Amino acid sequence: MSESQIEGMFESVTDRAKSVGLNYDFSKMKNANTKKAHRLAKFAESQGKGPDIDEALLSAHFTDNLALNDDEVLLSIAESVGLSQEEAQAVLSSDQYADEVAQDIEEARAIGVQGVPFFVLERKYAISGAQPQALFQETLQKVADEMGIKPGLQVLGDSDDGLCEDGSCAF
């Protein structure tokens, strides 16, 4: 890709992020080898904290511009999601979970992943790159239809009228 194409891609992603309340600044993002972060994520997953650490790592990288190869940064993230500092340090100071990360990398290569983001749905459909929201909606609907998933409740209207915000409502 040319430099102008890359800049356009970053601008597009930045605009999309801003539309959902995230502030990305690619000029401040720290490039880092993320193998330690991936091993820490595997540890967090084993402790039932996978989604929590995934969110924290993404936030640290994309919005806080932190280096995901820095042990202090990673330990702080681990602590923020409720992981043991001692156990997290042991993971970072060793090769724990390296085989699992290598297996994930090999699987990604085998299915054609060449970059991020890359989304796999039901091991049948893939969406590569930052695509329009409509493509995600269409693909998710296709998967739901194929699986026979129907929404249980359809919310109508776009107003918050009638919502209890002062804590006085009883259910």
UniProtKB/TrEMBL annotation:
InterPro entries: DSBA-like_thioredoxin_dom, Thioredoxin-like_sf
Stretches assigned to the DSBA-like thioredoxin domain: 3-141
Stored CDD domains: DsbA_FrnE
The protein's name: DsbA family protein
Species of provenance: Marinilactibacillus psychrotolerans
